[in-house]
Write a structure and sequence with these properties.
By secondary structure, the protein is α+β, with helices and mostly antiparallel strands. The protein is built from one helix and five strands, in the order E-E-E-H-E-E. Strands 1, 2, 3, 4 and 5 form a five-stranded antiparallel sheet that branches. Pfam families: DUF6894. It comes from Aurantimonas endophytica.
């Protein structure tokens, strides 16, 4: 298995210094999606936008093997329940 590093840029660079092992690119892709989904969910639940995020996955030689860009914003319009 090869080790991959999931490096996030969300205004600042958050480098993965530990990485994780994966047998194939399908597994790397799955972790990349889960990685972003967890962080985006947390930010939106705390009322923070997720503007222009970039996830670069690198291999052990630090060569980029997968790039995911993402942006999400939550806008509340009108009076909601409990507002």
């Amino acid at each position: 298995m090869a080790r991959f590093f999931f490096n996030l840029h969300d205004g600042i660079d958050v480098l993965d210094t530990v990485g994780s092992e994966h047998a194939d690119m399908a597994s790397v892709r799955g972790e990349a999606v889960e990685f972003l989904a967890e962080r985006v969910r947390g930010n939106l639940l705390r009322g923070k936008d997720t503007a222009a995020w970039l996830l670069k996955v690198t291999d052990e030689s630090r060569k980029t093997v997968l790039t995911v860009s993402f942006s999400a914003a939550l806008q509340v319009t009108g009076e909601g329940v409990g507002a």
